[in-house]
From TrEMBL:
SMART domains: AAA. This is ABC transporter ATP-binding protein. SUPFAM superfamilies: P-loop containing nucleoside triphosphate hydrolases (SSF52540). It comes from the Bacteria. Residues 4-229 form the ABC transporter domain. Pfam families: ABC_tran, DrrA1-3_C. Belongs to the ABC transporter superfamily. Keywords: ATP-binding, Nucleotide-binding, Transport. GO terms for molecular function: ATP binding; ATP hydrolysis activity.
Length: 301
């Protein structure tokens, strides 16, 4: 079991309190996204987690022990990983491995393994100076997982990448979820929805949301329903729009949209009536707020 527990963590720089009594946990095998606008305190929090910064107060426990004694259990990719351009990918990983007290045949075998895992097996003998941004990030992830950490921490892993590089890294993170517990920070909400299980949202140094993504989506249900038919539903819509169950009803082509007064009762009634119409229903959907809408509400509160 790999469980990270952060309790009442704070950090102040002169008069600015960058992180304010933050508490949350990451469960074994979970992928948690730490999201928030620029300046929310995400990088400061991560730097305390990987022991670049020392907290002013609070505790960080990994598998029940203080984080200071669990350094070897953590793999870290900073937002802007730095490499020696004159080294090849293999030489870079060999150098990093030795810093982690790895050596010999075991290190060489692990280097081959992680290069295949991150899709750089054919580039192992090429100098890092010729790597694209996406290749550098994948090499950064390779060094972070080289020693088989129990917790992988990624700080804005795709923020500086073009769409191709971003897709490469997201696909890699998705695969790594099967092997290790992951915490990554980002302000790209599409990435969060795609790969994470849990969200911790920061604003002005504080956690303002800490829930599983599935629960956030469930709670984001609105009172709006859409029914899409295969054929023109004008006659059905004109008949049903007269009901007093709607706050608003509108039709655009084959899509009928209703804002109901009672989400559960009126939504169920609408579903039954749509089925009675005898028309081919392509889609019946309760519209949810997007993660971006939730994010904007939270950061503006």
């Amino acid at each position: 079991m790999t469980t990270l527990k952060i309790n009442q963590l704070s950090k102040q720089f002169e008069s600015k309190k960058a992180v304010k009594e933050v508490s949350f946990s990451v469960q074994d095998g979970e992928c948690l996204a730490l999201i928030g606008p620029n300046g929310a305190g995400k990088t400061t929090l991560i730097n305390m987690l990987v022991q670049i910064l020392k907290p002013d107060q609070g505790t960080i426990l990994l598998d029940g022990e203080q984080i200071s004694g669990a350094r070897e259990k953590i793999g870290f990719l900073p937002q802007y990983p730095a490499f020696y351009g004159f080294m090849t990918a293999v030489e870079t990983l060999r150098f990093m491995g030795r810093l982690s007290k790895m050596s010999g045949k075991a290190l060489e075998a692990r280097i081959d393994e992680v290069l295949r895992q991150v899709g750089l097996a054919e580039e192992g003998k090429k100098k890092v100076s010729g790597f694209s941004g996406g290749m550098r990030q994948r090499l950064g992830i390779a060094q972070a997982i080289l020693h088989k950490p129990k917790l992988l921490v990624l700080d804005e892993p795709v923020s500086a990448l073009d769409p191709i590089g971003r897709r490469e890294v997201i696909t890699l993170i998705e695969a790594l979820k099967k092997e290790t517990t992951i915490l990554f920070s980002t302000h790209i909400l599409q990435d969060t929805e795609e790969i994470c299980d849990h969200i911790a949202m920061m604003r002005r140094g504080e956690i303002v949301l800490d829930k599983p993504l599935s629960e956030i989506k469930r709670e984001a249900s609105t009172s709006v329903f859409e029914v899409e038919f295969a054929h023109d539903p004008e006659w059905w819509f004109e008949a049903i729009r007269k009901s007093d169950r709607w706050i608003r009803a509108e039709r655009i082509g084959t899509v009928c949209r209703f804002e109901v007064k009672n989400r559960h009762e009126d939504g169920e009634w609408l579903f039954i009536e749509a089925g009675k119409a005898g028309l081919d229903i392509q889609r019946f959907e309760n519209i949810h707020e997007s993660l971006e809408q939730i994010f904007m509400k939270k950061v503006s509160e």
